[in-house]
Structures are given as C-alpha cells and as structure tokens.
Amino acid sequence: MQTGDPVIESLVDEFDFLGDWEERYRYLIEMGRALEPLKPDEHCDANKVQGCVSQVWLVLGKDGEGKLLIRGDSDAHIVKGLVALLIRLYAGRSPAEATAIDAREVLARIGLGEHLSPQRSNGLASMVARIRSWAGEG
C-alpha cells in the first residue's frame, strides 16, 4: 500500500518541495487551519484522544460504502496540522486499506519522525492507534 499510493506520494512530494523545517512546520500549521471546525458538542470525552499532551479530538465515521470519514481538531497549532495530515492519509479509505497503512513509514518518508518532540510523537502514535483500532472494528 505504501509505495505508489497516490495520497502518500502526494504528501511526500508536497513536503519534499518545501525547503527547511521551518517551512514544513508552517505548512503543517496551514493544513491544520484549513480543517473544517468541529461542532462545540463534538469536543467531548468520547472523541478525545488519550495519550496526547495537547487536547485532540477525532470524530470517526463511515460513509455508505464503508469508507472512513474522519474529522478532527486540536488546541495546539502543530498538532492540529498533524491531525490534518492523518485525515489526508486515512480518510476515504476502506478499513482494510487504512489498517494496511504503515503510518510510521509514511511519516519517516516525510521526515517528520526526527523533527517531532517525544511528546508529539507519542500523541501522533495515539492518534494513529485510535484510527487504526476504529477502522479494524468495522
């Protein structure tokens, strides 16, 4: 699923195009700003991702064909960008496609792994685990 996947290749190309990590962080923040806001009642405990230092909410659903619908938010700019990145990576896929994605490999290809603090890495892993677990339930 990894190599040749159009969504993954597009993300890798976008981040490769950017120069230094300041530009990449700015791009990540812009991705987060572009997210559709959650409704106030969606900022609830049921949608909150445990294991993140920042507050993170993921609203998970499936469309009529069983493809993943994901929306999210965070109270931290960079983390909100990471939420947007994961939405691009996982949304619109079948549960089998989603669980086949090795997010660590994708993030390594983008170069994120080495530039995130340990807390952000742990939070990102918690978000990925929540999405993969939920996808696997279907």
Automatic annotation (TrEMBL):
<feature type="domain" description="Fe-S metabolism associated">
    <location>
        <begin position="13"/>
        <end position="132"/>
    </location>
</feature>
<dbReference type="Pfam" id="PF02657">
    <property type="entry name" value="SufE"/>
</dbReference>
<comment type="similarity">
    <text>Belongs to the SufE family.</text>
</comment>
<protein>
    <submittedName>
        <fullName>Cysteine desufuration protein SufE</fullName>
    </submittedName>
</protein>
<dbReference type="InterPro" id="IPR003808">
    <property type="entry name" value="Fe-S_metab-assoc_dom"/>
</dbReference>
